[in-house]
Amino acid sequence: MLNYDLTTLDWSSYTKIVEKIHHYLEGAEDLPTGWLHAPLENQDALFVHIEETALEIRNFADVLIVIGVGGSFLGARAVQDALTPYFGAHHDGIEVIYVGQNMSGAYIKQLLENVENKSVYVNVVSKSGGTMEPALAFRVVRQYMELQYGEKAAERIIVTTDSTSGILKKIADSSGYRQFVIPSNIGGRFSVLTAAGLLPMAVAGVDIYNLMLGAKVAALEFQESQLEHNEAYRYAVLRHALYEQGYKIELLASFEPALNKFHEWWKQLFGESEGKEKKGLYPSTVNFSTDLHAIGQFIQDGSPILFETLLHFHEIDDDLAVPYDIRDEDGLNYLANRTFNEINAISKEGTALAHSEGNVPVIQLELQKLDAYHVGFLIYFFMKACTMSAYLLGVNPFDQPGVETYKLKMMELLQESKVSK
Ligand SMILES: O=P(O)(O)OC[C@H]1O[C@](O)(CO)[C@@H](O)[C@@H]1O
């Protein structure tokens, strides 16, 4: 899976520290590491409940509005985009749309206009239950639902939040909304494989059983304490070694547009977990070919501050062959009968070669197929690698004090403007 010129790195200097962190993580009871072993536990009852709820939503709704931000949004959206068709509605004709990630008045107004005359269900997702963006969106959407469905609105609103605390939990209890739980020992950006991510994915038609099977296989494989045998840890060590060599940016790149939102999920995972105490690689992302024609110049020839992680799935279900054209005015007949996916894969190889020659270190992450199983595997791989990587850096992977600062400042300004109004 992990492909890099390993001869450039002195792995032996990392073996002891990696093992120490591994045992700390496995043994700790007071860390929010519920996600570490969750895929190995029997969660069948939860999956059945999610599937039944998803079926009901698909039967009765034209649209599911999912409200959430950060970890309560990115994972579901990432997997949905990666595994469902590019165009048209999702499974059984349902649309799964998202709000609560921005405070654009235009966005939420147009979203409500767009669902008029459609049958709507809502899934509001917030671990803390008090994040401003989704809370505001929920206020608006909730009123819309009550106007449309009266008392029956309560049957169409499903809350995913903490099992005991938070304002959203209180609202859900008092209004009789159905509830799914984000376990208290799983933090927001590690919650994609809980109901927070799984319910919207299931509604969109993602095979959550195979997704979780992939995560389970990864959980078993990456339980290995030895760096030599654990690819998640090797990726973490590579990133750390490159950071120590002066590279300050990691560019996650792929050649399949379906993965664009997956990049965003990765960005939050690594950005919030590592970017603290004036340390950390800046996690950035590029979508090729698009960005080869935008930022490709900088990657090849610009400041030598970045390395690249190329994410590639060998098999993608849909494909199309380049047609033969007797006129050959564009001179492309030499590609006739080659498929787009083949050409895309060759373009990836060419990019890796070019960037390596430009002295940009290139790590290649290769998976067999873009399907639920391998996406589940990859999600777990990144969460495990990220945790190791943060501890190698000497920071706590599970907090985000900087984000809290922004929230406080915004609240102060909003309160001030209330007083001066
Ligand atoms: O699920 P919540 O509590 O609304 O939080 C949403 C997101 O906000 C953050 O707290 C900060 O961005 C993330 O860590 C989290 O995923």
Quick structural summary:
This protein has helices at residues 12-27, 34-37, 44-60, 74-83, 105-115, 132-149, 153-156, 167-175, 195-204, 208-221, 231-244, 260-274, 296-301, 340-357, 372-393, 401-420; strands at residues 2-3, 63-67, 95-99, 120-125, 157-161, 178-181, 249-254, 282-287, 306-315, 362-369. The protein is an alpha/beta fold.
Provide a descriptive summary of the structure in words:
The protein contains 16 helices and ten strands. It is α/β, with parallel strands linked by helices and 421 residues long. It has two domains: 2-27 and 213-402, 3-Layer(aba) Sandwich (Rossmann fold), CATH 3.40.50; 34-206, Rossmann fold. The strands form two sheets. The chain has a five-stranded mixed sheet with strand order 1-10-9-7-8, sandwiched between helices. A five-stranded parallel sheet has the order 3-2-4-5-6, sandwiched between helices. Helix 4 (74-83) packs antiparallel against helix 12 and helix 10 crosses helix 15 (372-393). The longest helix has 22 residues, at 372-393. 6-O-phosphono-beta-D-fructofuranose binds at residues 69-72, 126-128, 131, 134, 188-189, 272, 400, 403. It catalyses: alpha-D-glucose 6-phosphate = beta-D-fructose 6-phosphate. This is Glucose-6-phosphate isomerase. It is found in: Cytoplasm. Catalyzes the reversible isomerization of glucose-6-phosphate to fructose-6-phosphate.
